[in-house]
């Protein structure tokens, strides 16, 4: 498939003339919606004929683009006597377009645009019970079709949108997620995005003096531990110490927090010495 690079026009028996290119998103004639791409550079073939290659570099496109070439930069359009479009793909290979790619006698060429991912899905960490979503942004000729995968090979049935939404995923759904984007001209696979679902080990009980935090974890009797806060769980996480305490004689980890957490801080963790 052709996405960007150099487009070439092989012109026979017509060397030494100016060649110009216009583009349009829909290929409608007459010329009202067309915009100039500029003059093409000529390179004579020097094969004893009057044949030349005319070239013009075009930018990447995120939708179908129609191109037309002629011997003037103003209309009315004057077509070369005999011309054949040649395009160079991203690997430097020439792709010859058959006559059915032209939609008018004036030599309009449609360049197919395969899908391209412009923003990969990002890793996400959530607590069990929270919803999770992963998104991809892609361009290319519409319509684009999406299919999400879990751990590379498992097809997620019904997950066919640009955004993958998971309602209250469990720790069993922790893993790698990717999406295949397809259109009529090709397909592209996204990179893997890690979803981490953390089990809920903290209970919070409101009391008259503040919030009582108790973890479903057992420490050694009288072991020192730290309680930390963070604003989110996206790496790198900036944890802030809010308290240091000791487990009681039976190893129960319990802390009474008398002050409200700072604005924006909503994630706790427990560290042992």
Question: What distinguishing features does this structure have?
Answer:
elongated; five-stranded antiparallel sheet; 25 strands; mainly beta; six-stranded mixed sheet; 273 residues
Please tell me about this protein's structure.
This protein has no helices and 25 strands. About 7% of the residues have low confidence.
Order of helices and strands: EEEEEEEEEEEEEEEEEEEEEEEEE
The percentage of residues in β strands lies in over 45%
Report how far apart the termini are: 58 Å
Q: Roughly what is the average pLDDT, rounded to an integer?
A: 75
Shape descriptor: elongated
Helix content: under 10%
Number of strands: 25
Q: What is this entry, summarized?
A:
This protein has 273 residues and is mostly beta strands. It starts with a strand and ends with a strand.
């Amino acid at each position: 498939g052709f996405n960007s690079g150099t487009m070439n026009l092989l012109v026979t028996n017509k060397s030494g003339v100016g060649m110009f290119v216009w583009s349009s998103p829909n290929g409608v004639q007459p010329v009202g919606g067309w915009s100039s791409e500029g003059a093409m550079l000529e390179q004579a073939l020097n094969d004893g004929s009057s044949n030349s290659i005319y070239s013009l570099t075009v930018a990447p496109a995120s939708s179908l683009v129609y191109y037309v070439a002629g011997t003037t930069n103003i209309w009315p359009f004057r077509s070369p006597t005999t011309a054949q479009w040649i395009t160079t793909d991203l690997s430097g290979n020439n792709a010859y377009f058959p006559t059915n790619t032209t939609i008018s006698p004036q030599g309009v060429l449609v360049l197919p645009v395969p899908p391209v991912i412009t923003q990969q899905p990002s890793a996400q960490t959530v607590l069990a019970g929270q919803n999770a979503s992963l998104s991809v942004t892609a361009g290319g000729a519409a319509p684009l079709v999406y299919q999400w995968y879990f751990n590379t090979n498992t097809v997620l049935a019904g997950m066919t949108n640009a955004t993958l939404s998971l309602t209250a995923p469990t720790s069993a759904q922790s893993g790698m997620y990717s999406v295949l984007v397809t259109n009529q001209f090709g397909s592209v696979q996204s990179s893997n995005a890690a979803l981490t679902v953390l089990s809920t080990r903290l209970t919070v009980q409101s009391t008259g003096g503040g919030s009582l935090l108790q973890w479903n974890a057992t420490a050694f009797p009288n072991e020192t531990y730290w309680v930390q806060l963070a604003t989110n769980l996206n790496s790198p996480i900036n944890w802030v110490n809010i308290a240091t305490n000791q487990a009681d004689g039976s190893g129960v980890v319990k802390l009474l927090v008398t002050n409200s957490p700072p604005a924006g801080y909503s994630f706790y963790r427990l560290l042992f010495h």
